[in-house]
Amino acid sequence: MDVRAADVDIPFISLSDGVVTLRPWSRDDAGFMAEAFADPAIRRYNGAHDRLGRPAPPMSIEDAAAIIDEFASSWRALVAAEPPTGVAFAITDAASGGLVGCCGVDDWSNADVAQFGYWIGPSARGRGYATRAVVLLTRWLFELGAARAFLTVEADNEASAAVARRAGFVHEGTMRAHSVWQGERIDVMWFAALPLEWPMREPDEPA
Ligand SMILES: CC(C)(COP(=O)(O)OP(=O)(O)OC[C@H]1O[C@@H](n2cnc3c(N)ncnc32)[C@H](O)[C@@H]1OP(=O)(O)O)[C@@H](O)C(=O)NCCC(=O)NCCS
């Protein structure tokens, strides 16, 4: 983990395996985020929906900048010793520095259970960026003291279930009719990893 002094007022935490680097979002990345949210799969699986499962209107660059500002608030809260709920990393190609996607912490419970999510821009899929990012993020969550890390995946999202499995997560079950998309109830799979049994754990990693 690389921790540098903040150039704005948030810490610059970056995690890398040499192929993928995770780093905090910057306002300069707002155009990339807005463009990514025009992708139907990202709107479907990561975007906001109303109670009938209708997606929110397309994201503008201003909307994306506001989301990036919220991420920055969450980073500041983390520095102030609050849980990392709401912090998000930009996923970048380590060699070029180019943006490819996003992963972030949706929730950190009082019982130290971390829930996270991710997306990869359409042109960068199929190259292992998501799996590598999930491994890096999970390792960081366990270093922060998470007792359990989990994600939920809509039952028809095979690409995301494959990421969870490749990253060493266990499919613990399926919550029937747990979500709604365009008026139809959707089953949701539940994947989790525990620090001691996680196959991606490094031998000297804290439990
Ligand atoms: C889900 C999503 C992130 C998966 O992205 P992805 O690019 O398929 O996933 P990965 O980055 O792990 O790449 C996997 C592919 O790269 C290949 N790959 C190459 N090197 C790899 C490596 N070192 N590690 C893992 N996979 C690697 C795999 O074989 C696989 O190829 P295949 O699809 O032909 O089998 C992407 O489809 C997406 O953003 N979808 C829309 C939003 C979404 O569903 N978000 C998740 C909500 S739960």
UniProtKB/TrEMBL annotation:
The keyword Cell membrane does not apply. Keywords: Transferase. One of its GO terms (cellular component) is cytoplasm. Residues 51-201 form the N-acetyltransferase domain. Transmembrane segments: none annotated. InterPro entries: Acyl_CoA_acyltransferase, GNAT_dom, Ribosomal_N-acetyltransferase. GO terms for molecular function: protein N-terminal-serine acetyltransferase activity; protein-N-terminal-alanine acetyltransferase activity. The keyword Ribosomal protein does not apply. Pfam families: Acetyltransf_3. It comes from the Bacteria. PANTHER family: ACETYLTRANSFERASE (PTHR43441:SF10), RIBOSOMAL-PROTEIN-SERINE ACETYLTRANSFERASE (PTHR43441). This is N-acetyltransferase. It comes from Kribbella capetownensis. The lineage of its organism: Bacteria, Bacillati, Actinomycetota, Actinomycetes, Propionibacteriales.
